[in-house]
Amino acid sequence: MRHVIALDVGGTGMKAALVGADGTLLHQARRATGRARGPEAVVDGILDFAAELREHGERHLGAPAVAAGVAVPGIVDEQRGIAAYAANLGWRDVPLRALVGERLGGLPVALGHDVRTGGLAEGRIGAGQGADRFLFVALGTGIAGAIGIDGRVESGAHGFAGEIGHVVVRPGGTPCPCGQHGCLERFASASAVSEAWAAATGAPEADAADCAKAVESGDPRAARVWQQAVDALADGLVTALTLLDPRTLVIGGGLAEAGETLFTPLRDAVQRRVTFQKLPTIIPAALGDTAGCLGAGLLAWDLLDLTDRKEATP
Fold it and tell me: Would you say the C-alpha torsion 233, 236, 242, 247 has a positive or negative sign?
């Protein structure tokens, strides 16, 4: 069966799949990144995992993969195929596309940013399917976004497009590792809510999921922490929709797992803030933690389609 290799590399773990031409996940696997052993070990782990996937496809699907897609965090130069920087993984300027391609015997390889890749999947085959303009926002340890235009995701001139987490929503506020003060992700990410709820309760292990449950049970402290996050998120999203005018706004990541505990107040908060802007449809992501692998598979299939078109051009 014709298929591609898809790898989604996170800060602590890697998800992988063999993906069919129709987007079917034919095989899935997971493993740790091994980041405690250093960036070189992480890269070696990615290459070994990719090679194992190729072998699995040959044994169980009757043919080798025809291409590969790899999604990684941090700063990604997709055009040159370089994983430029990832704080969690400790690497800088890794020519990952070339390394994976070499390990896979010259197979075509596409490299993408993890959130933009997940956003591609959500926009093309997930919650945003059918929307000509969408914005995907992932609320996890940080906050990042993907700007979708006619079935593709815009990476920007330098690979930084969609970094909504570093829009300043509280000038002079909490310092951010990026060097600014008051960035959105310091107030509305899952980690920010976890920190605020732990401080409010005096329980260091309390997290955003605990806060959401406390909101549902009517805890006024939780309601205050949650509303502060929702208000900051609404401020950031209205800035984004003012600039981008998306038809659909897809929200994913850990914080979105709270469901309507998040979406009901968030829709209200965004609606209160818009004036001349058109209110987009605000919906939860649909693909969960398979989005990255599915998106990496789409990148691989797109790469093959592009190659076929070039070869067909006289």
Answer: negative
Closest CA relative to residue 89, chosen from 23, 35, 143, 138: 35
Q: How far apart are CA 117 and CA 22, in angstroms?
A: 17
CA dihedral 248, 252, 47, 37 (to 10 degrees): 150
List, in sequence order, every residue forming a beta bridge with 234; answer none if it has no partner. none
pTM value is: 0.91
Question: What backbone phi and psi angles, to 5 degrees, belong to 130?
Answer: 95, -10
Distance CA 223, CA 221 (A): 5
Q: List for the chain the helix, strand, coil content (%; round to 5).
A: 45, 25, 30
Q: Encode pLDDT of 265-307 as tens digits.
A: 999 999 999 999 999 999 999 999 899 999 999 999 999 876 6
Q: What are phi and psi of 136, to 5 degrees?
A: -105, 130
Taking each helix axis from N to C terminus, what angle separates 208-216 and 190-201, rounded to the nearest 10 degrees? 70
Give the DSSP per-residue string, 36-51.
GG-HHHHHHHHHHHHH
Q: Is 218 exposed, middle or buried (0-12, 13-18, 19+ CB in 10 A)?
A: exposed
